[in-house]
């Protein structure tokens, strides 16, 4: 779990098991992070949201606040906080969302962006539906923007990269010591989830998102503009993200896609970081963050080309926000991150509610939560109610899809 501003030296790494943080300190990224800005415990949260939120939240609140203040003081321009955490485990879901409330209280004027990784259906944490549901209520109430990502989508993307590499099509080659290969340079047959490669997709999402803050460009976008332009209603702050190309770590040498194809890819379901198809759902707004040698005219041409196939809400037909950063990712001529406020996120939430209810109807594993001081069973009912209200808001928007778009006359300005 990481809360950071614009650079890794301003990151605070928090985990209630010390193993992962110790790996970082002993690995190739050990000099990237400030070793004084780490908070760890030994026992872990036992895959229990209540332990992470109620126990460790109270225990480490002051220590977390101290390190956050220190990081904030060293920022030249504190634009926002990024909180990166999982939804299925105890620390990510519990302490991660506790941190959101701490930030809201301590820095009320600073935007809170969350990258939340949702568990797949085959998740091996049996209590992950409880943890995810309880965390969703906190995200609904205390986040300004949430980029939901699901493990299954990340795994599917890496599997597709494997297939492309194995096929040998289009002159594809694998670089030595690649994350998608084994030590001997051959493509790994995956039986376990390739977490390093999956995490690198999320890292590249954040690199694209922060590119305007780090590099020059002809049309830079302030991070706060994302929330301002893409979140028309407070609760509907979930943005579906897609990346193209997906090989931005340069692990794989794949001939670049044509520029226009790159824009088309960003709206295809194969490039979404959750299981969703935005083309068949309703857009509230969309941001395109482009890096590399791309002109404003290229942006405009592709938006006009794609618009007829994309359905926007009637009151925001021109709901596009664009950014151009002149520096491309390493090894590429250009890249595109699309952020869509789109009703296609609804099935992810409906599936989460369904998985939760299967456990909750049986009251299975509930006692593990209720034995934690300060945890009441009413928290579960409130969490379901919060998510159901969110789903209903998306339902009401979807109900307007077939309505005709009013032909609003342009404002005439007298000269």
From TrEMBL:
Highest taxon of source: Eukaryota
UniProt gene name: Tube1
Domain Tubulin/FtsZ 2-layer sandwich: 219-354
Alphabetized InterPro entries for the sequence: Epsilon_tubulin, Tub_FtsZ_C, Tubulin, Tubulin/FtsZ_2-layer-sand-dom, Tubulin/FtsZ_GTPase_sf, Tubulin_C, Tubulin_CS, Tubulin_FtsZ_GTPase
Pfam families: Tubulin (PF00091), Tubulin_C (PF03953)
Keywords (A to Z) from UniProt: Cytoplasm, Cytoskeleton, GTP-binding, Microtubule, Nucleotide-binding, Phosphoprotein
One GO term describing the cellular component: microtubule
Name of the molecule in the record: Tubulin epsilon chain isoform X2
SMART domains xrefs: Tubulin, Tubulin_C
Annotated Tubulin/FtsZ GTPase domain residues: 2-217
């Amino acid at each position: 779990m990481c809360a950071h501003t614009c650079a890794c030296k301003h990151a605070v790494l928090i985990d209630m098991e010390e193993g992962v943080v110790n790996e970082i300190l002993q690995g190739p990224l050990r000099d990237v992070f400030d070793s004084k800005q780490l908070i760890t415990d030994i026992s872990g949260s036992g895959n229990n949201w209540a332990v992470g939120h109620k126990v460790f939240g109270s225990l480490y609140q002051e220590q977390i606040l101290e390190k956050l203040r220190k990081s904030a003081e060293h920022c030249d321009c504190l634009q926002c906080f990024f909180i990166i955490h999982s939804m299925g485990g105890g620390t990510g879901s519990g302490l991660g969302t506790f941190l959101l409330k701490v930030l809201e209280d301590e820095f009320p004027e600073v935007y809170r962006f969350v990258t939340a990784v949702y568990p797949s259906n085959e998740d091996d944490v049996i209590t992950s539906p409880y943890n995810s549901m309880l965390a969703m209520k906190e995200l609904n109430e205390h986040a300004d923007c949430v980029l939901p990502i699901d493990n299954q989508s990340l795994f599917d993307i890496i599997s597709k990269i494997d297939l492309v590499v194995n096929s040998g099509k289009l002159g594809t080659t694998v670089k030595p010591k690649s994350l998608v290969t084994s030590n001997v340079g051959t493509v790994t047959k995956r039986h376990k989830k390739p977490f390093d490669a999956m995490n690198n997709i999320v890292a590249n999402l954040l690199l694209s998102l922060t590119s305007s803050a780090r590099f020059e460009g002809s049309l830079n976008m302030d991070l706060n503009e994302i929330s301002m332009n893409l979140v028309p209603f407070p609760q509907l702050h979930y943005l579906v993200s897609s990346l193209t190309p997906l090989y931005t770590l340069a692990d794989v040498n794949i001939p670049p896609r044509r520029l226009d194809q790159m824009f088309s890819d960003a709206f295809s379901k194969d490039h979404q970081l959750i299981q969703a198809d935005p083309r068949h759902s309703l857009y509230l707004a969309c941001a395109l963050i482009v890096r590399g040698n791309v002109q404003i005219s290229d942006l405009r041409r592709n938006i006009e080309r794609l618009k007829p196939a994309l359905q926007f809400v009637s009151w925001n037909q021109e709901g596009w926000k664009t950014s151009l950063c002149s520096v491309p990712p390493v090894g590429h001529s250009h890249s595109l991150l699309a952020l869509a406020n789109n009703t296609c996120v609804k099935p992810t939430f409906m599936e989460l509610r369904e998985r939760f209810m299967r456990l909750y109807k049986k009251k299975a594993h509930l006692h593990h939560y209720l034995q934690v001081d300060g945890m009441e069973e009413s928290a579960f009912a409130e969490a379901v109610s919060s998510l159901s209200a969110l789903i209903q808001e998306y339902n009401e928007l979807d109900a307007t899809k077939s309505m005709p778009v009013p032909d609003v006359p342009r404002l005439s300005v007298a000269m």
